[in-house]
Design a protein that fits this description.
- The complex is a heterodimer of chains A (557) and B (315).
- Chain A folds into 2 domains: 200 residues, no CATH class; 231 residues, no CATH class.
- Helix content of chain A is 76%, strand content 0%.
- Chain A is built from 21 helices and no strands.
- Chain B has 2 domains: 220 residues, Rossmann fold, CATH 3.40.50.300; 67 residues, Alpha-Beta Plaits, CATH 3.30.70.100.
- In chain B, the strands form 3 sheets. In chain B, strands 6-7-8-3-9-10 form a 6-stranded mixed β-sheet, with helices on both faces. Chain B has a 4-stranded antiparallel β-sheet with strand order 2-1-4-5, covered by helices on one side.
- In chain B, helix 8 crosses helix 11.
Chain lengths: 557, 315
């Protein structure tokens, strides 16, 4: 036997045998040892490996010692500065602010940066290939890296725990404030680590990685600054974060938690998708995540709308955010690689309803386009419903700003812009793909250039034309979504609004029809049977359960 | 070699295009269980590209490759369970020792509990790394690293091994050890695809070889088969008792003899034809009354065959 675990086990057995009768302590230790060995099998391999590495690495040791030294210096320095007031004045908040600054650096800078470097270093050290040909799933690799970040966080928290207890003893801060401060920072650090991992998957080219690294470090330093300021404010002025909180606090907390969870999940699946083999279905989990995110967003907006007495502003805010969101997601979804791999085809929905409702979740640029259209249409329908409901409850007498017409026009025209721009972009990408390879980045850039052209060309023409320069709005700017929608809110231009209402959705519908042949082609792909060899392997891996008695009178086979 | 009906490795009209370059161009061959298959070619010929496709690290532009009947494109997860890939570089983790390195990969291949401990133990014993279990891998010699890399490759007991230049940079002793390990693995029924620049060693262990150049497969078969296929002329030696002058005239009169050179009783010449033709020549010499005391034809080594097939364009 050559392994650690076995040796430990043998040693335990030897130790136990050394005494005439195995003592209770030895038996207990042996049981704990066996349990830990067994528990270790359930841990993510990457977490185990990186924890082993971290415990031996100089970077971790140096950071750990620096945090310890800094907290010691802060303790001595602040206590000295407070002086005799420490005996009668509540100075816990002052010390907490300083301790938080010490803690924030490793948590908001070192840990996320380590997460980023951990994945990029795999590529630099040529271990990424070795890792990716194991049977670890991409989500296991990502969660292993996140687990490693959490392990590091736990160590830094443990360093600061006695210090934080000391601040409580000094009075001036309560336990919930300290707990919320730490909890927020934990999730903040975890979120930044997730972003770091996602950024690390974006490119394999060295120069691009360096570029991303510089940007990421700058952003982390800014986050550290924000963290310190926020910690200072909370420690000094928060005093008791739960003191006197109303329902607004919990609603805001709920909104933040929902947004965090859904964006975290989106980043997680995106990172896993980036390192997944190309024949795998990388799009469906992301699309499911987007739907959940939209549902959560609509739910919270509905809650705010109801608590805000059905005000139209909330509907307007909802459609603007949803429109921006779906345009951004649409540029990514329509940039997906065309064609479905055999692996994906084996799992396509087969039933009528399955094909009707789930085909939009299939990977591919055209289904992605339809997915975005379906979701924006749903948002428009929900918006219409909200407006109608508001009108009924108010007896149709609601006036003020914005008006019902303005909000409805914005929804319809906004829908037209999203469908139109994404559709034209998709047509260009599809045409280019016939003659050249179009990467996802190139496809997104095409969408961006198209949008910029829509903004920039009319603006340039208007600026150069003596007649149009002074005009507030002309139909030349119909390709400019911001000017056009703003024009609706200018008031007294119903005629213009009607023209926009006909033209923009009309053009968008034409673009959609132009895309329809390739959408139909993508949707007509049907499920393919798995090869016999795959079925054999599946049967070996997951054998069907043995046939047992079907009812109390059945005899066992 | 155990020749089973279905191949363990199968490349089917494999193509891989990078921008304008056709790195792998319509390559097809099969490797069976228990077979050591040599994959040789000059630098940039497409060996590593095809091996990376087999290892599910790259995707073919056209065609497909199969490991134990599973497509590397459509079923990479099933392929990975059956495949051990040793690339031509050694991926090291910092602050990790030999045991921890193997333990990580055993866990990554889903081995747990006693099964993992047993696998690590067996691999360390096979690769003679028992005594180095707690040595940091950064401090290992090249030979030890290669053994560890081989150990990592076989930690999950795969049925197929793909070894890219495993002997590169090794000293003679380490090469011999590696060769013995590969032979033992083949005896255990594993299909082994191995690329190497050390052709003499490859010739000793490979049951069959494939020669690739500029992405195209030039020849596939045993060294003898390929030699026979490419060998139109061989260098022959004949030593006779006394009749040297008559031998000169006799040989000079033949159409299949070139570059004749006689020194004393020894004639060295180039003979056109294969082995059958050599046997016929010997028979005719004896029938012509020559007292032949030495007859031999110099057959081409794998290096000669490689140079001949690739027409000397080795980079």
């Amino acid at each position: 036997m050559t392994t650690d675990a076995v040796t430990t086990e043998e040693q335990s057995v030897d130790a136990a045998a050394g005494t005439m009768a195995p003592s209770r302590a030895a038996a207990l230790w042996s049981a704990i040892d066996r349990f830990l060995n067994h528990a270790g099998d359930w841990l993510n391999p990457i977490l185990v490996k990186e924890t082993r590495q971290a415990l031996k690495s100089s970077q971790f040791t140096i950071t750990f010692v620096l945090v310890l030294a800094a907290s010691w210096v802060v303790t001595v320095g602040v206590v000295a500065a407070i002086g005799p007031r420490i005996f009668y004045s509540a100075e816990g908040g002052t010390l907490l602010a300083w301790y938080y600054a010490v803690l924030a650096f490793p948590l908001l800078v070192v840990v996320p940066l380590s997460a980023f470097r951990s994945l990029t270093a795999e590529r630099e050290d040529n271990t990424y290939d070795l890792l990716s040909i194991t049977t670890l799933k991409p989500w296991q690799i990502i969660s292993g890296k996140l687990g490693s970040s959490m392990a590091q966080m736990a160590v830094y928290f443990s360093v600061m725990t006695p210090c934080l207890a000391f601040t409580y003893l000094l009075r001036g801060v309560d336990v919930p404030t300290i707990a919320i401060l730490l909890l927020y920072t934990f999730f903040w650090s975890l979120g930044l680590s997730m972003v770091g991992i996602l950024l690390a998957t974006l490119t394999t080219q060295r120069f691009a990685q360096v570029f991303i690294l510089v940007g990421f470090v700058s952003w982390l330093l800014f986050m550290f600054y924000c963290g310190v300021m926020w910690g200072y404010g909370t420690a000094y002025y928060g005093r008791s974060m739960l003191g006197g909180v109303g329902s607004g606090f919990w609603i805001v907390l709920g909104v933040i938690a929902t947004s965090y969870a859904t964006f975290f999940a989106l980043a997680f699946f995106a990172a896993a998708g980036m390192i997944t083999f190309t024949s795998e279905n990388r799009s469906t989990p992301l699309r499911a995540c987007m739907v959940v995110q939209q549902a959560a967003f609509v739910g919270w907006m509905a809650a705010v709308w109801i608590s805000g007495n059905f005000r139209l502003e909330f509907v307007l805010v909802m459609i603007i955010f949803a429109g921006l969101y779906w345009y951004v997601m649409g540029t990514l979804l329509t940039a997906e690689r065309p064609g479905l791999s055999q692996r994906v085809r084996r799992r396509l929905p087969q039933s009528f309803f399955g094909r009707m409702f789930l085909s939009w979740f299939n990977p591919g640029p055209n289904s992605g386009y339809m997915f975005v259209i379906a979701n924006t249409t749903l948002i428009v329908v929900l918006g219409m419903f909200a407006i109608a409901f508001g009108e009924i409850t108010s007896g149709g007498g609601r006036g003020g700003n914005p008006t019902v017409e303005e909000v409805v026009d914005t929804m319809v025209i906004g829908w037209g812009y999203i469908v139109g721009y994404l559709g034209i972009g998709l047509l260009i990408i599809s045409a280019l793909r016939r003659i050249a390879k179009v990467t996802m980045l190139a496809a997104v850039l095409i969408h961006l250039l198209l949008l910029l052209a829509g903004f920039g060309i009319p603006y340039a023409v208007k600026s150069m034309s003596i007649e149009l320069r002074e005009a507030d709005y002309s139909f030349l700017q119909i390709t400019d979504p911001i000017f056009s929608i703003r024009h609706i809110f200018d008031g007294g231009v119903r005629g213009d609004a009607n023209v926009l209402l006909i033209l923009i959705p009309g053009v968008a519908t034409c673009v959609l029809l132009l895309n329809m042949p390739q959408i139909i082609r993508e949707l007509r792909v049907v499920r393919e049977a798995a090869p016999t060899r795959v079925l054999q392997d599946e049967a070996e891996l997951h054998p069907p359960p043995e046939a047992g008695p079907q009812n109390p009178w059945d005899e066992p086979a | 070699m155990i020749r089973t009906t279905s191949p363990q490795i199968e490349l089917s009209h494999l193509h891989r295009v990078f921008d304008q370059a056709h790195a792998v161009n319509d390559v097809s061959f099969e490797v069976y269980a228990g077979e050591v298959f040599g994959y040789i070619g000059p630098n940039g010929a497409g060996k590593t590209t095809s091996m990376r496709i087999l290892a599910t690290l790259d995707e073919p532009t056209a065609g497909d490759a199969y490991i134990d009947g599973f497509s590397v494109v459509d079923d990479p997860d099933r392929v990975r369970r059956r495949l051990g890939f040793m690339p031509d570089y050694f991926g090291t983790y910092q602050n990790v020792n030999v045991y921890e390195y193997l333990d990580f990969f055993a866990r990554a291949y889903g081995l747990a509990g006693q099964e993992r401990l047993r696998a690590i133990g067996e691999v360390m014993e096979f690769t003679l790394l028992d005594s180095l279990a707690h040595k940091p891998i950064d401090g290992l010699s090249k030979g030890m690293k290669q053994r560890l890399c081989l150990g990592r490759t076989m930690i999950h007991n795969p049925s197929v091994l793909i070894l890219d230049e495993p002997a590169a940079g090794l000293d003679p002793r380490a090469r011999i050890e590696l060769r013995e390990m590969i032979e033992r693995l083949a005896e255990a029924g594993k299909a082994i695809l191995i690329s190497s620049h050390i052709l003499t060693e490859l010739a000793e262990i490979a049951d069959r070889v494939a020669i690739i150049e500029q992405g195209r497969l030039l020849a596939v078969g045993s060294v003898a088969e390929i030699s026979a296929g490419v060998q139109s002329r061989s260098t022959a030696r004949v030593r006779v008792l006394r009749d040297a002058d008559r031998l000169r005239q006799w040989l000079a009169a033949r159409d299949d003899i070139f570059d004749l050179n006689i020194t004393g009783e020894l004639a060295v010449f180039t003979h056109a034809g294969g082995r059958e033709s050599e046997a016929r020549l010997l028979r005719e010499l004896i029938e012509a009354g020559f007292s032949v005391i030495e007859f031999g034809a110099q057959h081409k080594s794998l290096e000669d065959v490689f140079l001949h097939v690739t027409e000397g364009r080795v980079q």
